[in-house]
Specification:
Elements lengths: L3 E4 L4 E4 L8 H10 L2 H17 L7 H16 L14
Antiparallel strand pairs: 1-2
Helix pairs in contact: 2-3
């Protein structure tokens, strides 16, 4: 049976993730409050951040930055794209 969550990002009930996608307390909050659809959208946003800011996820400072953006994306004011970013259409 599919696990449903009241998704904080979508503002509605939706299919939840099968397991925590991130370690620690943040991962637990995401598992409990974020839908699969919203997590997929975050992965696309995260990829854009990595590319635009030229981040290296093996670097501790870059992981810390992405974790902060993840927190903002789901539970804060939102994670914005860099000013110079123009999405391809």
């Amino acid at each position: 049976m599919t696990r449903m969550v009241n998704c904080v990002k979508l503002g509605r009930e939706a299919e939840g993730l099968p397991r925590a996608p991130y370690p620690g307390e943040l991962g637990k909050r995401i598992l409990e409050q974020v839908s699969r659809e919203a997590w997929t959208a975050w992965l696309k946003h995260q990829t854009m951040l990595i590319n635009e800011y030229r981040l290296t996820p093996i670097e501790a400072k870059d992981r810390k930055f992405l974790e902060g953006e993840m927190e903002k994306y789901f539970f804060g004011e939102g994670s914005a794209a860099p000013e110079q970013f123009t999405p391809k259409t």
